[in-house]
Amino acid sequence: MNALAISLLAALLMLAGAGAGILLRRRLPHQHLNEHSKDVVRLGASLVATITALLLGLLITSAKTTYETQRSEVRQIASKIVLLDNQLKRYGPEAAAAREAQRRAIPPLFWSGARPRRRRSRSNGGPWGSTARFRRSMPRGWPASPGATGARASPAGARCGQCWARPGRPPRD
């Protein structure tokens, strides 16, 4: 059953219950229609309504949490893929085969070149406003590519945040 059919069925059942209540009221003895009985029915109905509202709130919160978790995981994966691609790009032509294998393994969505338009915000880019403007403000050739300076990748440097170590000089730990 789809959602519309279930909703219509629930509405029909509620209307049938209300109609049955109207008919039964005429047949009930007068002692069952006093104020005490009406108060008990009102309290029961309010209890059911409160519990229903609580359950709906918990359901919505659970769905939102699941959505936010999946969204953050997708963003993490995407950022790690972009970071890996940028690191492989720094190695130059030697890593072209690895970059191509990565691009074949990832769905074309990431590499199609069509990016969603973002609103520009000056507050997120720091004093330069954007990363691109920061890179343009740096001297040409900085940071130097690993092949131009004879630098080599350093696993120890990668642990401490230093990406490249000069030959003959040990990486800082």
Please provide a brief summary of the model.
This protein has seven helices and two strands, in the order ααααααβαβ. The protein is an all-alpha fold and 173 residues long. The longest helix has 56 residues, at 35-90.
Structural class: mainly alpha
Mean residue pLDDT: 75
Number of strands: 2
Strand numbers in spatial order across the main sheet = 1-2
Name the overall outline: rod-shaped
SS element count, helices: 7
Please explain how this structure is put together:
The chain contains 7 helices and 2 strands. The chain has helices at residues 3-27, 35-90, 96-105, 108-111, 131-137, 146-149, 155-160, and strands at residues 152-153, 164-165. Strands 1-2 form a two-stranded antiparallel sheet. The radius of gyration is 33 Å and the shape is rod-shaped.
Topology:
Blueprint: H1 3-27, H2 35-90, H3 96-105, H4 108-111, H5 131-137, H6 146-149, E1 152-153, H7 155-160, E2 164-165
Antiparallel strand pairs: 1-2
Features:
two-stranded antiparallel sheet; 65% helix; mainly alpha; 7 helices; 173 residues
